[in-house]
Amino acid sequence: MTSLRVAFPPLGSLSLAAEGYIRALGLEVVSPPPTSRRTLDLGVAHCPEMVCIPCKLLSGRPDHP
Predict the structure, then answer these.
(1) pLDDT averaged per 10 residues in sequence order, the chain, 65 residues
(2) Running DSSP on this structure, what letter comes out for residue 51?
(3) To 5 degrees, how large is the angle CA 62–CA 27–CA 20?
(4) Which of 8, 28, 49, 61 has a 20 to 30 A CA-CA distance from 22?
(5) Helices (H) and strands (E) in the chain, counts
(6) Would you say 7 and 32 are in contact if contact means Cβ atoms under 8 Å apart?
(7) Phi and psi for 25 in degrees, rounded to 5?
(8) What is the distance between the alpha carbons of residues 53 and 41, in angstroms, rounded to a whole number?
């Protein structure tokens, strides 16, 4: 059986607590690369103007399908 993987954006010092909690649940934690200006630029290029910044940041990730 494949283990479930969870990814979440950087949360500052909360990342350590969130990662520990997720691992305690028996899930694998995947840390995405840091967000950069290029990430936002790619997201802006792929999304309509009315889309929120978090969606643009997600769409701009190079590993996003």
Answers:
(1) 78 89 93 87 94 90 67
(2) S
(3) 95
(4) 61
(5) 3, 2
(6) yes
(7) -80, -5
(8) 11
The domain spans of the chain are 1-32, 33-65
Direct distance between the N- and C-terminal alpha carbons of the chain, in angstroms, rounded to an integer: 24
Q: What is the pLDDT of residue 48?
A: 95
Q: Which two tokens stand for residue 29?
A: 């934690």
DSSP state of 47: S
Residue 36 identity? S
Task: Determine the residue type at 37.
Answer: R
Q: How far, in Å, CA of 13 to CA of 40, rounded?
A: 23
Residue 37: phi, psi to the nearest 5?
-65, -35
What is the chain's length? Answer: 65
Is 36:24 a contact under the CB 8 Å cutoff? no
